[in-house]
């Protein structure tokens, strides 16, 4: 990192003497004859350290460095003056406008050590700023990762929930979901004094179809049957795959056993009206249906 030093004094011999003693330390040294020119140089150059004389005609060193603090707060500011100006300089140091006070006449070794220390202070502040930005970016990245992980966990939990409650082949609710829904509907029926029908549908000769056409065709047949059954129910009804070739319906709020019978006849008609084409094969499907009605045939799911 280039170290640029600005020397400000209306007496050219002072800045020349300072530059001569400090040039050997590898600094890029700029010289200004007053505060106004010093501000112009600050606008044009990346200056890390400033040494300004206190007694100057345009503005004092304290006034100049106070302006620098407002406009270029990262620059390390030092004032050069005799002991007669010590009180005003101390007050500026207390306000934070000045980093250090260098007395006239100065000791060369002490001057070089002080300037080196000032640049180390400036560079440390720069590194802290970069580190703070890196930490901020890292924290933002961690927050994004945490958010992504939370979303992933939520997705996985949702998938686990779906796997545990839905049949993977047909997408219908499984036995567990159906039993939960049945318990809910029985509770509602008990409260509202309504009827609930449970209807079981078994596909006839399914094992023969499986053996004759193979598992892929049989699975596609089950999927097609599931789509047909879903199209026969109300929004309040539930159709589920219990396993194998067995499906079940929960029909809440039916008026009587005849209403459940109408649904059963609709299922049989939909499945047997015409063959189902799967993989280029026409398959005739028949089914057997059983119906149980609450509260006539039972009071619970056992």
Question: What do you see in this structure?
Answer:
There is one protein chain. The chain has 302 residues and is an alpha/beta fold. The chain has two domains: 126 residues, Response regulator (Rossmann fold, 3-Layer(aba) Sandwich), CATH 3.40.50; 120 residues, Alpha-Beta Plaits. The protein contains nine helices and eleven strands. It has a five-stranded parallel β-sheet, with helices on both faces. A four-stranded antiparallel β-sheet has the order 7-8-6-11, sandwiched between helices. A hairpin with a 2-residue loop joins strand 7 and strand 8. The longest helix has 58 residues. The two termini are 82 Å apart. The mean pLDDT is 88.
Give a short summary of the structure:
The chain has about 300 residues and is an alpha/beta fold.
Write out key terms for the chains shown.
302 residues; alpha/beta; Rossmann fold; Alpha-Beta Plaits; 2 domains; five-stranded parallel beta sheet; four-stranded antiparallel beta sheet; 9 helices; 52% helix; rod-shaped
Number of helices: 9
| pLDDT averaged over residues | 88
Strand count:
11
Helical content, roughly?
Answer: 40-55%
CATH class of the largest domain: Alpha Beta
Rg over alpha carbons: 44 Å
Shape: rod-shaped
Query: Which consecutive residue ranges, at least 5 long each, have pLDDT under 50?
Result: none
Straight-line distance between termini: 82 Å
